[in-house]
From TrEMBL:
Keywords: Membrane, Transmembrane, Transmembrane helix. The keyword Transmembrane helix applies. The keyword Transmembrane helix applies. This is O-antigen polymerase superfamily protein. The chain crosses the membrane at residues 6-24, 36-57, 77-98, 110-127, 133-161, 173-193, 250-273.
Amino acid sequence: MGHFAFLLLYAIFPLFILVCYRNSVLDKIFDYLSSIIAWLALSSSILWLFGPFLGVLKPNCTFPDTWSDGSLSSGEAFGYYGLLYQLQWSGFGSFLGFRNTSIFGEGPAFAFYLIIALLVELLYFKKYKLWRVFSFIAALVTSFSTTGWILALGIFVAYFYCKSTISKRARNLIVFIAFCLFCAAFSVSHVLFASKVDTSSGAIHMDDFKAGFAAWLSSPILGNGIGNNDAVVPFMSSFRDNNTGFSNTFLFVLATGGLLYFALWLASFWGYYRAKGNARWFGLFSSL
């Protein structure tokens, strides 16, 4: 029943978004989405600065936690005002401390919503709100998600290239600079990835890649069943015990739905490329 409900949701949700778009309701939905995530990003960034980073604020709440590396032996994660919890450690250069995960279980999960909100703010709305963009960037930086950093850079490049009124020469210069920054960011992320592999979290992420690829090869065309996480579990390493969650979305799509399911995503992005105006961004958000 769970898999059927997932398929039903996948089929109905784009139609729901289409109805909202045609009735001019989508703007309000995206505005609420961007505003909520912006306030969450701003508050969690401030709490992270004065809490885990500077140590001015002390934790004043707890949350049951049995799986993340930030939890103590008591099985509880400490938090600040219910808006930020100490759930994940991260090392960057000489810094070693908790990531800004806000109310989410890990930094990449928080970064995912920040990226969606940044997309909405810069590429969907005709005029962005600076405080929201600042909040998203501050939270992305403190989440220490290298994937989030690279995607944010890509969003800014898309904004300046597609929506800015600057000259074509300036646009090309921005693209060149962005390419250099992307190469630098890729190098940094490679170093960070190499250091993370030695940790339990890094080992699990690497095992997710191997398990997902092996599961996809077992049924490359049709996949093993959309949303069927159990099909990937047999390919996971034994050291993971009961930690059978999956973190690699791209390979999870291929492993469970195969190339046939992945073709639907490609069709959505192709439609996004062919569309014009706000309809282009509507197609992109429907894909996400």
